[in-house]
Amino acid sequence: MPARTARFVPLLFAVSLAASALPASTARAVPDSTLPSFAGSVTSRSYDGDEDDLLTAGLGFSGLRRATPPAVADPGRPTPAELRRWAVWAAAGLSGSDAGGLGRLYGPNIGADGRPVPGDGRIAGTEYTVTAGTGARGVTFVVQVPADLDRARPCVVAAPATGLANVYNAVGGAGAWGLHHHCAVALTDKGMGPGFHDLRSDTVMATDGTVGSRARTGPGAAFDSGLDDTARRRYDARHPYRVAFKQAHSRQNPQAGWGRDVLRSVELALALLNRDWRKGAPVAGYTPATTTVITAGVSNGGGAAVAAGEEDRSGLIDAVVASEPQLNLAPLRGLAVEQGGQRVTSAGLPLVRYASLASLLQPCAVLAEPSAPGYTSFDPGAAQRRCSGLVGDDPRLIPRRDAARAGLRGLPVLARKALVRAGFQARSGYLQASHYDPQTPVSYEMGFARASVTDALCDYSWAATDASGRPAPYTRSQLAAAFATSGGRAPSPGTLIDDASLGGPVADRRSIGPDGALDYNLDSELCAYQLAFPDRAETSEERLWARRVAQGLDATRRDGNLHGKPALVVHGRDDTRVPVNHSSRPYLGLNSRTEHGRSSLSYVEVTHAHHSDSTAPGYDNRYVPLGYYFQQALDLMWARLTEDRPLPPSQVVRTVPRGGEPGHAPALTRAHVPPIVPSPAPGDRISVRSDTVQVPG
Fold first, then answer.
1. In angstroms, rounded to a whole number, what is the distance separating the alpha carbons of residues 246 and 167?
2. Which single residue of 120, 359, 402, 690 has CA 20 to 30 Å from 465?
3. Half-sphere exposure of residue 340, counting CA atoms within 13 Å on the CB side?
4. pLDDT tens for residues 84-140?
5. How far is CA 538 from CA 174, 445, 544, in A?
6. Please, which residues have CB within 8 angstroms of residue 589's CB and are 6 or more apart in sequence?
């Protein structure tokens, strides 16, 4: 481990714990063994690596490979242990075919030597669960300490959850990598997670994942809507069967706390290690000076890892590794992005802006790509009506003059061109159909604006639905499984509802417009677009909410200052969820400018890779897994920290798709996924010159 300046993060006042809550130390506790003052309830459980364990929740790799989730004794009342096991199974994702490389070339069963781990992968150790705050302000942390922790050269991997998912979401990625390297792992849900409040039944989720009535759960709830019973019943009478969820309706803007939460997870890990100080550990205890700390995440988790790197000014973190990070950037102020010598027309937009543009344009653009996955889920007539609804004076959509030249049949091509003008890669046209998701921009807007569920911005709400798409009550088992099955929005199978649809509220994709025809809820999507782009707001109410969205958004912006920390970011060029032009590319430029050319950030852009590693037909033959490069990036950063090897320079890695027919692609081999190299060819180098990020074509 490289020499480091001895800097200590102060641990605040201790939280008293029952003696039975933590395992007894085999040696004296070091002086700095108190827990931070933000820590609330703390529980611990030791796993013997047989009946249960840290990495596979007792399933072993064979259990993680099963196509169906682990069984629960009572689907209406799964236990915390059953929910944890289910969540770990879902996070590992090993149930798919290994033809795409998962479980064979990368994944939770791949060890430090790059090969599959012998045996079934169970790892003994102690797992601590800690909550900070309560209800809508609550954040959940899990710290895993393997029994084979390298106490002489300790390390911590902070792995925030991706997306809006539960606290175990990263255990199969950065968490598994950390455990294989004998590190403690610090997980956090970043203040989001699957907390919900079913307003009809007054059911909420507890912090342990179980569900029950709000009255019985009390302060142990992970989230509730904040409505008293009178207001709740009044709203339910007008809008029956709706559900509130934490990301959109907590009124806390949780994304603003991502960096803080990751830093807190590291503080907790160090404090808990010190409480269990044992022979062979550093004499001074586990501190920033004695412990190697990497924060690593994917998508939202990658954005949280970067945020922690920026907000860490006391030397708590050694390095940052991020894959496809979702970043809301500070204004670029003259910073430009070029690809193949051509300037990108739009760069550095925050998610609510590019996502609201995408959701408007995608139902039209899909008509230009009938072979794309997801195409058959669209109604051609409704999609064509969406095309017509985009024609107007807005240069971000389809200008009238261009529409007149192209004619009705040419509008889908113009919509695809508008997506490229908006910063999406031209090659991502094939992915637009499968990425249509209007709930993303509006749910983030509600979070930024600190909206209540009763505010129902743009006439949106969430509910389970019946066969006709109308809001319907959840079953007990659907709510009970939400900790493991929900992606962090409405509990599965909940969906976005258009409350203003002609004929009454209905699932958004079945929305009927004022003319009586299916239109994918153009009015509400235009509303979300107007909230994201304040210059489009028309009414005083829209301007008010747009200002609130903008204020919340500003609290989440990243300025590129990592304070000289080594960082490695990998991103798929064809990412349609978090486009490279709005995230990693301009962030490289911001970091270079902010750190005055003395940046320690390397950026690796992978061709033929996008935001998920799906091997579904149509993905399998065209794309390679970005997860393979995330794991490689962690290995490279480990070599940088422990062996003082330099990070590779910023570069494009040119991969080879598997080919073949959709659904019948040959198995992925290492020939398809060449490594990140220490000396890329001149035509593959990414550079920053004169405030311009230059990416080879």
1. 14
2. 359
3. 3
4. 999 999 999 898 778 999 999 999 999 888 888 888 999 999 999 999 999 999 999
5. 45, 17, 10
6. 332, 335, 336, 337, 560, 688, 691, 692, 693
What are the E-state strand segments in 330-403?
Answer: 336-339, 342-343, 391-392, 398-399
pLDDT at 119: 86
3-state secondary structure of 592: helix
**Alpha carbon 643 to chain centroid, angstroms:** 31
Query: Residue 389: which H helix or E strand, with range?
Result: helix 380-389
CB 398 within 8 A of CB 419: no
Q: Which of 225, 299, 356, 584 is catalytic?
A: 299
> Measured at the alpha carbon of residue 19, what is the angle toward residues 14 and 23, in degrees to the nearest 5?
95
Token reading at 172: 């199969």
Q: Which residues pair with 106 in a beta bridge?
A: 102
C-alpha dist (Å) from residue 65 to 62, 89, 440, 527: 5, 8, 30, 43
Judge contact between 655 and 673, C-beta under 8 A: yes
Residue 538, C-beta contacts closer than 8 angstroms, at least 6 positions apart = 530
CA-to-CA dists, residue 227 to 46, 234, 260, 555, angstroms = 39, 10, 28, 26
Q: Which two tokens stand for residue 26?
A: 């085999």
Three-state DSSP class for 196? strand
Predicted confidence (pLDDT) per residue in 404-449, tens digit: 999 999 999 999 999 999 999 999 999 999 999 999 999 999 999 9
The predicted pLDDT at position 26 comes to 44
Reference 538, options 385, 393, 321, 688; nearest CA is 393
- Evaluate whether 478 touches 493 at the Cβ level (below 8 Å): yes
The alpha carbon of residue 410 and the mean position of all alpha carbons in its chain are separated, in whole angstroms, by: 36
pLDDT bracket for residue 538 (50, 70, 90) = confident
- Distance, in Å, from the CA atom of 33 to the CA atom of 26, rounded to the nearest integer, reads 14
Q: Is 299 a catalytic residue?
A: yes
Alpha helices by DSSP H, 252-298: 258-275
Structure token pair of residue 513:
């417009």
DSSP strand pairing (196-198 vs 243-245): antiparallel
How buried is 597 (Cβ within 10 angstroms: 0-12 exposed, 13-18 middle, 19+ buried)?
exposed
Mean of the per-residue pLDDT values of the chain: 93
11 has a pLDDT exceeding 90: no
- Residues with Cβ < 8 Å from 118, sequence gap 6 or more? none
DSSP state of 551: H
Rg of the chain (C-alpha set)? 25
Using CA atoms, how far apart are residues 611 and 584, in angstroms rounded to an integer? 13
Q: What CA–CA distance (Å, rounded) separates 303 from 309?
A: 10
Write out pLDDT tens, residues 325-351: 999 999 999 999 999 999 999 999 999
pTM: 0.94
pLDDT one-digit tens code per residue, 172-227: 999 999 999 999 999 999 999 999 999 999 999 999 999 999 999 999 999 999 99
The dihedral sign for the CA sequence 682, 683, 684, 689: positive
Sheet with 601-606: strands ordered across: 42-47, 125-132, 139-146, 184-188, 155-160, 292-298, 319-323, 567-572, 601-606, 651-653
Q: Exposed, middle or buried by CB within 10 Å (0-12, 13-18, 19+), for 650? A: buried
